[in-house]
Amino acid sequence: MAASSNSAARFEAVDGLRAISILWMVAFHSLWLLGYAMPPGEFSKLITSPWLRPLAKGHFGVDIFFVLSGFLIGNLLMKELKREGRIGLASFYRRRAFRILPAYLVLLLLAYPVPDMDGHSVWANLLLVNNFVPLYTQFVPWSWSLVVEEQFYLVFPLVLPLILQLWKKPLSRLYLYFSALAAGIMTQSLLLRTHAINALPPFHPYLGWDAFGLYFDTIYDKPYTHFAGILCGIVVAHLLNYHELQKWFSKNALTARLFLGLCPVLLLTAMLEPSEGRVAVQLYLATVRTVFSALVAYVLAYVVCIKPDSSALARALSARPWKAIADVSYGAYLFHPLAILILYSTALKPLAKTPSNLLLGLPVLIAMSLGIGFVSYRCVERPAQALGKRLT
Question: So what's the pLDDT on residue 104?
Fold first, then answer.
């Protein structure tokens, strides 16, 4: 280990985590979207298959994305503050707009004429507040996570200088971040009790519209309840910039590796759902994403502080194929649910019969999603970013 790991090596490992998260989410949506193509009874039996359980947990992939976004943007802004003494807000917002909005607007244009899409609330998508519209009236509802990130991009550059000014000591800022995580858990607990959410929500709205919608609208897609991943990423960026995190990993190599070895077990344990009990269910729902995000943040901290050639994990996550997937991950995430929905209602309808059919068809759906992401990356995202740079 070395305290002077270069940034290129760090971001190669980040690409590996991003690639894993998009593959997991595509696999999850490949299963979840079948709920719109099958009778509820058949779908309910399908999702009980033990072979599909890893796919059913793929919604945690979005929390990995949140951790990475919090880290990357937090690290960028903190470095700019240390270097310049200020954040160039206009430049930051312009870069984010040219990176995020062009492909998003293309998605809205393509989805608007689709018969099953309710375009009446597209105004909320354009204003980036569609996560405050009830789930059953949302247009392209999977974009809620993108909007949560955009709301973070809007607020955090304004808040970070105030944090650094009011909390002078780096350790006191850590206490602030951890207090915010605790406040998020308390907020979720209060909302769960207030709305009497005493049981786990069904896997899909077709298996229980009211219960699924209540949980989604109350807890799942709101920035004040689903910010733990972003904040955990910010904590890693803070430790990297103000606490010499690399030196800690270098001095405590054995402890760092032992805890890293426990992380897969802890991650799986964190995703184990309680079978019954109001208190157990509410505790699980209020804490699971914070715990999961904290564990992902530790893995992220480990790989960004170690050179790829000195750690098997960092080396694996820095492999070249991951970067190709990571580059197209944004477009793949935006467009793959729409493409899968259309395919399930047409050419791939036979896929909705058995777990074996779905698993056999999964590579096709993943390849299609990455292909669409590649088209978005080359034809929309890169030209838009180049235009943004020229205008700047």
Answer: 97
pLDDT in tens, 166-202: 998 888 999 999 999 999 999 999 999 999 999 999 9
Other C-beta atoms lying within 10 Å of the C-beta of residue 42: 13
Q: Is the separation of the CB atoms in 25 and 61 below 8 Å? A: yes
| Interacting residues of 321 by C-beta distance below 8 A, sequence separation 6+ | 19
User: Residue 173: is it exposed, middle or buried by C-beta count within 10 angstroms (0-12/13-18/19+)?
Assistant: buried
CB 160 within 8 A of CB 230: no
pLDDT 10s digits, 375-387: 999 999 999 999 9
CB neighbourhood size of 324 (10 A): 13
Angstrom CA distances, 364 to 147, 220, 280, stand at 28, 29, 39
The per-residue pLDDT of the chain, averaged, comes to 90
**170 in Cβ contact with 245 (< 8 Å):** no
CA-only gyration radius of the chain, Å:
21
Which residues have CB under 8 Å from 282's CB, separation 6+?
Answer: 189, 192, 193, 197, 198
Q: Are 232 and 247 in contact (CB under 8 A)?
A: no
Residue 214, exposed/middle/buried by CB under 10 A (0-12, 13-18, 19+)?
middle
Residue 4 has pLDDT above 50, yes or no: no
Other CB atoms within a 10 A radius of the CB of residue 270 amount to 18
Average confidence (pLDDT) over 262-281: 88
Structure tokens at 62: 């979005």
d(CA 86, CA 89): 9
Place of tokens 């960026």: 237
List CB contacts of 320: < 8 A, sequence separation 6 or more. none
Domain chopping of the chain, boundaries: 7-391
Letter for the amino acid at 371?
A: G
